[in-house]
Amino acid sequence: MLRLPSGKPILVLYFVCCLWFARQIVAENNVDEPLVEKVVVSLEVHVNSENFSMSYKVEPLPESHAELGEGPHWDVERQSLYYVDIHVGKIYRYDYNEDKVYKAQIENETLAGFIIPIEGTTNEFAVGAGRRVIVVTWDGVSPVAKVKKTLFEVQQGDQRFNDNRFNDGKCDPQGRLFAGTMKYVGDEFEHRYGELYKYEKGGKVEVVKSDVGISNGLAWNEKTKKFYYIDTTDYEVKEYDYDFATGKATNPKVVFNLRKNSPKDHLLPDGMTIDTDGNIYVATFNGHTIFKVDPKTGNVLLEIKFPCKQITSAAFGGPNLDILYVTTSSRFGEPDPAGTTYKVTGLGAKGLPMTKMQV
C-alpha cells in the first residue's frame, strides 16, 4: 500500500509484469543474450482519497531502451518524441503515428546530452556533445546522423573542465537555449565544476550560473513569469523570477526540497517539465518516481510510480499534449526494464508546446 503525503491511501489495483516470462524464455531456450527488447512492464494505478480520485497507466514504448535515456523533446509538427542515450552519442525519435522508435549514431561522437530541433529546418538539431553544442543533420529514420558544424564550445583553457560535458538542455518560449555542464568523470558532488549557459539567436553565449554540480531540469511558466531549475547535487528545485524579454533569471528560492534525514537517503532530482496549470513534474534518479508538485506551496500533488529506479526526465506530448513521456536509465547494473522509455496516460493534465531553438 502506497500513501499520499496527506496519509491517504493509494490502491494499486493492477500490475502487469512480463519480466519473469522473458527470463523463463531465455532459460528454456538456452539463450545467452538477455531479451532486453522483449521485457514489457506496464502499470495501471488507481488513486483514491476523500476529495480526489484518478487512474493513470504507465506503458513502455516499443524498442525504446537507452543506457542513459535523457533530454525528451516533443515536436508538435512531426508528432515525434526526440531523446538521447548520453554516453554512446545516440539520438532517438519515437513516431507517435507509427508507434515506432528510430535510432541513429552521431558520426564520430561519443556523447549526446540533449537534442532540440532547430527552428526553420526539418532535419537539423542542436545536440550537446561533450563541452560543445553541435548542429546535427538527421532525417529521423537513418541509422547515422552527421555533424554539420559546431555552434559553440564552453569551459576551454582550464584543465579542471577537461572531464566536463553538457547534460540537460532546453529552450525557453522565445527559443533561447539553456544548457548546463557537469563533471562526468569523478565526484560531481565534491567538484562543482558545472555551469548553466544561455545561447541567444545570433551566437551570444553567457553564463547564467556557476558553482553547479549536475546541471539538470529546466522549465518556464509565462503566466507567472517564473523559471525553474534543478542542480541535482543541491537536492532541490529552485524558482527564479524570469524576464521573458531579456532572458534574465533573478531572485532564486527553493520551492521543492528532496532532502531526507540523512544524505544517503536524499532523493536525486533529475529532469523536469511543467503543465498548463503551472505544476512541475520532477523526475528522481534514485526514487522510481516523478513528483507532481505545486510550486506555489511545495506540496506534492501526485507521485507517479515506475517499475524501474532511475527516472531521468519527462515531457508532455501526443496530439493533445496530454501524454507524459518519461526517459529512464539502466546505469550501474540496474535490471530490466531499466532504460525503457515510457508513456503515462490518464493524468488529467496537459503540457505546453516545447520550443525549437533559434539559431
Q: What is shown here, in short?
A:
The chain is mainly β and 359 residues long. It has one helix spanning 19-28; strands spanning 2-3, 9-17, 41-48, 53-60, 69-75, 80-85, 90-95, 100-106, 115-117, 124-129, 132-137, 144-153, 164-171, 177-183, 194-200, 204-212, 215-221, 226-231, 236-243, 248-257, 269-274, 280-284, 289-294, 299-305, 310-317, 323-329, 342-345. 42% of the residues are buried.
Question: Which helices and strands occur, and which strands form pairs?
Answer:
Blueprint: E1 2-3, E2 9-17, H1 19-28, E3 41-48, E4 53-60, E5 69-75, E6 80-85, E7 90-95, E8 100-106, E9 115-117, E10 124-129, E11 132-137, E12 144-153, E13 164-171, E14 177-183, E15 194-200, E16 204-212, E17 215-221, E18 226-231, E19 236-243, E20 248-257, E21 269-274, E22 280-284, E23 289-294, E24 299-305, E25 310-317, E26 323-329, E27 342-345
Parallel strand pairs: 8-12
Antiparallel strand pairs: 1-2, 2-3, 3-4, 4-27, 5-6, 6-7, 7-8, 9-10, 10-11, 11-12, 13-14, 14-15, 15-16, 17-18, 18-19, 19-20, 21-22, 22-23, 23-24, 25-26, 26-27
3D structure, described in words:
- The protein is 3% helix and 51% strand.
- With 359 residues, it is mainly β.
- Strand 3 (41-48) and strand 4 form a beta hairpin.
- It is built from 1 helix and 27 strands.
- The N and C termini lie far apart (50 Å).
- The chain is globular, with a radius of gyration of 20 Å.
- This is Regucalcin-like isoform X1.
- Belongs to the SMP-30/CGR1 family.
- Pfam families: SGL.
- Residues 1-27 form the signal peptide.
